[in-house]
Design goal:
- With 321 residues, the chain is mainly alpha-helical.
- The chain has one domain: Orthogonal Bundle (ABC transporter involved in vitamin B12 uptake, BtuC).
- Helix content is 75%, strand content 2%.
- The protein contains 15 helices and four strands.
- The strands form two sheets. A two-stranded antiparallel sheet has the order 1-4. Strands 2-3 form a two-stranded antiparallel sheet.
- The chain is globular and about 55 Å long.
Length: 321
């Protein structure tokens, strides 16, 4: 075997392993119900909502690699998309609404990062608290009421970000572009290297001259940006903003990151693997129901895949650590 190819296999073993799981899973689903899984509509349905998760999974890989966790992203999705919905409903251009949502997400990410990095709070507890705080604020102000954006379908923003091209939801192309950008940032840019070094040993990173706090802050801001884009895309897909926007993504996104090959102990991870993990989680629910099983099996298989993948990654990464 060529040495360079072997090195590539070793370097990408986590993502390749995740892809192998996805292929086997899809083969089982196709065999279980070929009438459903050999037709395009089921894939179109999944690809419509999958990009929302991808925009959040990818930056979370950076946060986890740096040794932290962010559980506030569901509320950041809801809060940022709320800003988007307010501006669109007030008659402003949706492009301006998207820009405002991204600025909002960045600001929320900065606030969350400040609590963790500068106030030195546990990222698990601080981000969970921020999730409840922001969600509560949304509910208090809106009193549980949704916002219908009836004019959104006629806008250029909708055509560019949320329409279809030859039957394929266009948002999947934007999500794939985001994954490619993040993968290059993670694997080929100084920022990605610094994130890995900090997650592996923050003291060594500090001695190497890396501004540890600044890099950790950047990961949380990136998380806020991804959550804002994901929340806005979700609103554009549904033409409606809900006060619970983003709530259903907490467990699937976490599952995608860990199934994708980014372990919980920091220092190592894979953006592409996380994206493939998002495909696995997205197809589990559809595949289980299409295979003829009850929807009650979904949580069971989600948990099973998470546990098995963590065991596999732990076994796979021992020598690396």
């Amino acid at each position: 075997m060529d040495h360079s190819f072997r090195s590539w296999l070793i370097e990408n073993r986590a993502a390749l392993g995740t892809f192998g799981v996805f292929v086997v899973m899809m083969a089982i689903f196709v065999a279980a119900n070929p009438a459903v899984f050999t037709t395009w509509p089921i894939y179109s349905s999944v690809l419509t909502t999958l990009p929302v998760a991808l925009f959040v999974v990818v930056p979370l890989v950076f946060v986890v690699t740096a040794g932290d966790i962010d559980l506030s992203f569901p509320a950041t999705m809801g809060f940022s998309s709320w800003v988007f919905a307010l501006l669109v409903q007030a008659g402003y251009d949706p492009f301006l609404g998207l820009a405002a949502a991204i600025v909002t997400g960045s600001a929320l990410g900065f606030c969350v990062g400040a609590l963790v990095v500068y106030a030195n709070l546990s990222s698990l507890i601080a981000t969970l608290g921020m999730n409840f705080l922001l969600r509560g604020l949304i509910q208090i102000i809106n009193e549980g009421k949704s916002m219908a954006l009836v004019t959104l379908g006629q806008s250029w923003a909708y055509r560019i970000f949320s329409s279809q091209v030859f039957g394929v939801p266009v948002q999947i192309f934007w999500a794939i572009a985001f994954v490619i950008f993040a993968a290059l940032l993670y694997n080929r840019h100084r920022f990605g290297a610094q994130v890995k070094i900090i997650g592996d040993n923050s003291d060594s990173a500090h001695q190497m001259g890396i501004n540890v706090k600044r890099v950790r802050m950047k990961t949380f801001v990136f998380m806020g940006i991804g959550a804002a884009i994901g929340g806005t895309f979700s609103t554009m897909i549904n033409f409606t903003w809900w006060p619970t926007a983003g709530d259903g993504y907490l467990l699937p996104v976490l599952a995608s990151v860990f199934v994708g090959g980014t372990p919980t102990w920091g220092g190592v991870g894979t953006v592409v693997g996380g994206a493939i993990g998002a495909f696995i989680v997205a197809f589990i629910q559809t595949g289980i129901v299409a295979a003829g099983l009850s929807g009650f099996y979904v949580q069971f298989f989600n948990g099973l895949i998470i546990i098995l993948s963590l065991i596999g990654h732990r076994w796979n990464q021992i020598r690396y650590r």
